[in-house]
Structures are given as C-alpha cells and as structure tokens.
Amino acid sequence: MKKLASAIDATLEDKIFSHTAAAVEVTDLASGTVVYTRNAQLLLRPASNAKLVTSAAAVLGIDSSYRFRTRLAAADSSLQNIICIGSADPLLTSKDIQKLAESAYANGVRRVDTLFLEESMLDGSFYGAGWMWDDESDPFMPYLSAFPVDGNTITLRLKAPAQRGKPVAFTVLPSSSLIHVDNQLRSGKRTDVRIEKLPRSNTIHLRGTLAAGRRATRRVSMWRPQDIFADLLLDALRALDVQVDSVVLASPRTSPPLLPLGEVSHALDAVLAGMNKDSDNLSAESVLRVLGGREKSAGISAKDGLRALDKILARAGVKTDEIHLRDGSGISFYNLLTARALSSLLAVMARNPRFARFSSSLSIAGKDGTLARRMTDMEKGAFFRGKTGTVSGVSALSGYAQAPGGRLLSVVILMQNFQGRHRPYRDAQDDIVRHCIVYSGAAD
Asked: Cα angle at 397 between 289 and 153, to 5 degrees?
C-alpha cells in the first residue's frame, strides 16, 4: 500500500498540478479498504464521469428489457391522419425513419392528410441547466427532443477537386430540405475549413479551403430535430408513392384506440454502451428522462430524472449527499461531486448482481471507445474498464482496474482548473492506473 501511495504521490507532484485540483481515490473491492485517497472530499466537476452515475441508476432502476420505441399509428380507419409517438430514442437514424414509412405503406397508408408528432414525453426544455449558449453549434451539445435523428447531428462530407481554386463538393446527412448550406469552400494548397452554423437554425456557412484532392468530414449540432424527423418521414412516404398533402402538427397526448402502423426500437443496453464507451451525451440525457418516467409519464424533465436517480442510488447505498448533478451527461457547468462519492458508487455496483451489465458498458483501455488509444501498452491479461471525462479545464477518469489474477480495484481520478492541452493530465491518469495494476497484482 505504501508503494502505491508513493507512486501516485510522485505522479501528482508533477509541475502541471501546481495550480490544478486533483482528487484520487482507489479502493480494494475485495476487502472494501480504501488503499489510496487524496482530496476525495472536494466537490469537483465530473465532466462525463457523470455518466457513471446516470448509467448506474439506469442499470439498477430500469428493467434490462426496456426498449426505446418510436411508434407510428393511424388516428382512424381512413389511415390518412397518422400519429408518431416519440420516445427520445438516441439511436434513432434516418434508416429507422425509412423503416417506419415502409411499415406504414405495408399497412395500407396511401395518403397522408396530417402528420401529428406526439412529443409529450419530454417537458420541452431543449438544453440543460448550465449548458453554454455559445456551444450550440458543437455536436457534443445535442438539442433534446422526443424525436432525435442521427444523434441530432448534421454531418458534412467534403471532397476537394484536384485543381486548386475550384468549389469543394459536399453531401449532407441527413438529407433534408430543412438543412441549408452556403458553400464557399475552395480547393487549395492546405486545409483551413471554417464552419459557422447560424444560431438556432440549420443554416450552415462553409468557408476557407480544403487541400486539393483531399476529403474531410465535419459535424455540427442539429436545431429542432423533430422538424427534420417529420421532413424525412414525409419524404420517405412520397418516395413510396404515398400522396402527402400534409401539415405537421404537435399532438396532444394520445389515448387508445389507435391503429398501429409500425415501430422501431433500440435496447437500453445498446444505449448505455454508446453512452459510456463513446461518451454520447444525447444517450445520457435520454436515459435520465427514462428514469424520470418511473414516476411520470409525460412532461418529463431533467429534475424528474435526477430525483429518481437519487432515490435509486441512495437505496443501493451510494453517498448521494456528495453528488450534485443538473444533467445526466456531464455537460452542465453546475455539476459537482466528490471522488469519495464516485468511489462509493463504483463499489456498490461491483457488489451488485447487475455488475456485468454495468461494467460491459464501459470503455476498455487500449481496445474500444474513448479509451481505445490509451494504455495500449498494458501487460497481457491486465485490464482497465472505465469512463473518461473532458470539458474545458476538466479531465477525469474512473473505473475498474485489475492485474491478471489480482484484486479488483476501483479507481477515481478527477482533475480540474487548468488551461491548455488535456494530454498531460490524461498521461498522468494513465500512469495512476498503471500503478494500480501493479498494486492489484502484488496485493495479498
């Protein structure tokens, strides 16, 4: 234990920590002994380590059979007024919308007078508390909707011709008439692509140069994805020769009887994997709303989800008095928790019969997700499963470490209040994990 403490202390004595807060707690989960702790009582910003809290509550509080279901139905036997019921499915894609259209056609829809969007699941807040307004165009900050499309992200695929000075070709996904691109990009000597999305719109300006003969992909966030969803669905119906004389209207909460026309769905565990391995913020916010739906079927807010989350975790024995979240993803600048509380959560989950589901959602160092390129030199048989966290001035890494045949350890590392590159802090985190792997293998 002393060797571990000395090794971690030496890492944290680096000059990069002279003005940076660092909290670390390592627990031997076999004995429950805290084998290293430093500043574990400090309230710090978790960034995407908040997703560990959200996903743990989901594993404990939502049945594993839960699916995000987006349903299409007819209001009456004429099949001309159709209603789509949203579930905030973060994995919903343009291809899924095509499947809905094909199901409607197979079930006899030949004309659509009105498409109603049933959006009542969510409360209407499209951004979270403490989210930064000037991050709107960044795809990491998704617009929250009962009808997500392609992660609520617009993808621009660019291709520069070989001759300099010529316009750069582009394609847009999803392909919707509601997305407008003003393209002034030119093929040039070097790549200097500048993208501006006008606030609260899907109008995108492309400026600068893309090196001749090169390709590039850029992404921006989508504004009002429910409008894009409706546009794509109606276009897909038209492509099937369905007559569409449609207006799109928000629907009040529907009640049976409706005539089912089709549905698409995705499993909770698939959403949790995207949420933790790939750090998908939209998935985290959708899961938080599903948690809120335990007590409320419509108008679900982040606060509803957080109340449910707190009850679930407190009942399981987590130190929830040291967890103060305002969202489920870690985007909010208001989020605070202690390394001690996160360590408590990891220990509780390791003892739970559902631990395998929880741990399988985490990224594996050197293999997948946000840890695919980190700790690739880890000894054979050793592993670290964990969750990264990154926002401006904050870097975090928490999860489970174990040497071949060694004891399972929980490792929590929170770092904040720095400027510049995150790489030095990530390197320090990786070193701490390696020290823990050594200790795991040496522990009696």
From this structure: 45
Architecture in CATH for domain 2-64+270-442: 3-Layer(aba) Sandwich (3.40)
Is residue 256 predicted with pLDDT exceeding 70? no
Contact 221, 138 (CB under 8 A): yes
Q: Where in the chain is the domain with CATH 3.50.80.20?
A: 67-125+225-266
- Predicted model pTM: 0.96
Q: What is the DSSP letter of 278?
A: S
pLDDT digits (tens, 9 = 90+) for 351-410: 999 999 999 999 999 999 999 999 999 888 899 999 999 999 999 999 999 999 999 999
Q: Are 284 and 330 in contact (CB under 8 A)?
A: yes
Segments of the chain assigned to CATH 3.40.710.10: 2-64+270-442
Q: Letter for the amino acid at 28?
A: D
pLDDT band at 283 (very low <50, low <70, confident <90, very high): very high
Q: What is the DSSP secondary-structure string of 319-355?
A: -GGGEE-SSSSS--TT-EE-HHHHHHHHHHHHHSTTH
Q: What is the bridge-based pairing of β-strands 33-38 and 409-416?
A: unpaired
Beta-bridge partner residues of 188: 211
| Cα dihedral 57, 264, 223, 295 sign | negative
Distance CA 208, CA 102 (A): 41
Give phi and psi for 284, each to the nearest 5.
Answer: -65, -45
pLDDT at position 86 is 96
For 74-79, the CB contacts below 8 A with 24+ separation are 74/109, 74/258, 74/259, 74/261, 75/116, 75/258, 75/259, 76/259, 77/259, 79/107, 79/108, 79/109, 79/110, 79/111, 79/259, 79/261
Per-residue model confidence as pLDDT tens digits over 112-163:
999 999 999 999 999 999 999 999 999 999 999 999 999 999 999 999 999 9
Q: What is the architecture, at CATH level 2, of domain 67-125+225-266?
A: 3-Layer(bba) Sandwich (3.50)
On whether the CB atoms of residues 237 and 185 are closer than 8 A, the answer is: no
Backbone dihedral angles phi then psi of residue 308, each to the nearest 5 degrees: -65, -45
State residue 107 phi and psi, 5-degree precision: -95, 15
